[in-house]
Design goal:
Strand content: 15-25%
CATH class: Alpha Beta
Helix content: 10-25%
Number of helices: 2
Structural class: alpha+beta
CATH architecture: 2-Layer Sandwich
Largest sheet: 5 strands, antiparallel
Number of domains: 1
CATH superfamily: HIT-like
Strand order of the largest sheet: 1-2-3-5-4
Order of helices and strands: HEEEHEE
Length: about 110
């Protein structure tokens, strides 16, 4: 399975990349829901959180380190931000390549509408 995110990681599809290393790639969301909306994806294709294995533990921890760095670089580390990972259709996942949303730049309000 090749996802749109895998194509971005490989440079086959253009994106506004804000960070990339051998493990993860981070880029601006094309439909942002906050002033800062970055997607942080592992370079390895993993469809959902349910597909994570113990071998992925270090890479998943690295997602959080990268999120912290990006938030600081974008000036929202001190004021706060939200990290969100959706899992499956009912969880709101649209691209089946695990990814973390980094959201910030304003007060975000409650997590979910009732």
């Amino acid at each position: 399975m090749t996802t749109i995110f895998s194509k971005i990681v490989k440079g086959e599809i253009p994106a506004d990349i804000v960070y990339q290393d051998e493990t993860v790639t981070a880029f601006k969301d094309i439909n942002p829901i906050a002033p800062v909306h970055i997607l942080i994806v592992p370079n390895k294709e993993i469809a959902t959180v349910n597909d994570v294995t113990p071998d992925d533990e270090q890479m998943l921890g690295h997602l959080f380190i990268v999120a912290q760095k990006i938030a600081a670089d974008l000036g929202i580390g001190g004021s706060g931000y939200r990290l969100l990972i959706n899992c499956g259709s009912d969880g709101g996942q649209e691209v089946f390549h695990i990814h973390m949303h980094l959201l910030g730049g304003r007060k975000l309000g409650p997590m979910l509408a009732k």
